[in-house]
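Milestone 3.1: sequence recovery, worked example.
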């Protein structure tokens, strides 16, 4: 079956504006949300014309959906996990989009403190902190792991 034209009329006369569809063609990337994505994920995003967030699949505790690896400034081979504490309301079958941050206010403070302790000595810390602030504020205001990731 040939692809439908995005400019074709909708079946309903109730539609007051054309659908917000991208032009045909291009490269599409599909990826699950990652808490502080790795450079390979960011490269995938940069190379794509369209980005789809796959958040309706099962949350995986041992994946990057709620955690990230931090490398030490003085020794990049020395790494530690930074974890966003997550509650799964439906147990193991919880979808990524339904995972909740456990105690968002405390989690936001702890992650902010850990990142500052880990990278505060870097000459780039002021720029990094300014970029991180909206993400860290989202931890407290939204409470959903997928929204932060």
């Amino acid at each position: 079956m040939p692809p439908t034209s995005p400019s074709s009329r909708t079946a309903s006369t109730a539609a007051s504006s054309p659908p917000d569809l991208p032009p045909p063609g291009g490269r599409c990337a599909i990826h699950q949300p990652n808490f502080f994505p790795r450079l390979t994920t960011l490269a995938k995003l940069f190379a794509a014309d369209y980005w789809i967030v796959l958040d309706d699949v099962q949350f995986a505790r041992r994946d990057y959906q709620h955690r990230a690896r931090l490398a030490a400034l003085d020794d990049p081979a020395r790494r530690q996990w930074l974890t966003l504490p997550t509650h799964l309301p439906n147990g193991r079958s919880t979808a990524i989009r339904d995972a909740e941050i456990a105690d968002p206010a405390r989690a936001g403070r702890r992650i902010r403190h850990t990142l500052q302790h880990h990278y505060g000595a870097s000459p780039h810390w002021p720029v990094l902190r300014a970029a991180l602030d909206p993400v860290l504020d989202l931890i407290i205001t939204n409470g959903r792991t997928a929204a932060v990731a």
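Residues 28-148 form one domain. The helical segments are 39-47, 104-119, 125-142, 145-148.
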